[in-house]
Amino acid sequence: LPIRPFGFFxxxxxxxxxxxxxxxxxxSNTDKNKTKISLDLSPxxxxxxxxxxxxxxxxxxxCVEQTTSRLVPALLAKLNPQLFGGNFDVSVDTxxxxxxxxxxxxxxxxxxxxxxxxxxxxxxxxxxxxxxxLAQNLGYFVDNGSLKKAKTFLEEExxxxxxxxxxxxxxxxx
Length: 174
What we know:
Layout: H1 45-57, H2 64-79, H3 81-84, H4 92-106, H5 122-137, H6 144-156, E1 160-161, E2 166-167
Antiparallel strand pairs: 1-2
């Protein structure tokens, strides 16, 4: 994990049209020598996507949801190289492969919990499985045994229907 100085990270996104002012307010006890402000401007919402993707890809923590959320922009970049090619500090393939390896290691006996030490959760497992299937469709190696265990868990939780091949919250007829 990277060691970061004491403080906090704040990210703000503003939109507008025409001539608009956006004040930047700093606390009176802010050490301006240790403060960094960056500004990204874009004529469309798509421009802010790259900045948001970089934020997710560089997110320093590693629970299952955060690891999966790091994988999402990498997969989208792989799907849309004309939009995102060359905008990341690390190769997209490296991010995908590292994330897939980490997710495989974080899987419990069946699905995924928020953390490896927690019991599987149908929301987290569904989120991971959706990205694993996308990665597999893009040609990345995804362990079929891992997917099978997750599918079984989701069927038992009545979240996945093998008849329709869809993930949804299934409820018995009342």
